[in-house]
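Morning, I've got a small favour to ask if you have a moment. It would help a lot if you went through both lines with me. Thanks so much in advance, here it is.

***
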Amino acid sequence: MSEIENDRSRKSIKPHLNRAGVVEGEAPETDDELNIDVPSTSVTATSEEPCKDIAVPQRARVHVDEKLERSWRKLGEDVLIASIKRVRPTMKMANDMETCLDNTLAAVQGASGHIRHASTVVYHLEDSVDALLDASKLIPTNFENTVTIMRLA
């Protein structure tokens, strides 16, 4: 037997949807030979084993699947739109709070700058007052007037 015949005989063992059973060997020459039931070992061997190669015909569900897919897509879009509508006021409030927080931080930084400047001025004023107090200790209590004032005549 050649390789091609081996290939054909192996392929003919697999059950098909069109035929009830497959008999190993040559094809029948007449229709009368088709109706004769010849028991074969290969038929009984394959019928006992579960066939995994049998294709189960299915109805065309393309239209139903497309409608279902469109329905799910529409539902997803509706849920997304509803979520966005529900979240939009919260997002606006969060943006307003962020703007208010930015303005508050800017005001706090401005106030901090003014306080720092005021404290620097107060420290300089305190140093000036201390210097004046130290200088006032140098002024004698009895001051003699030794300077004569010239008068213009």
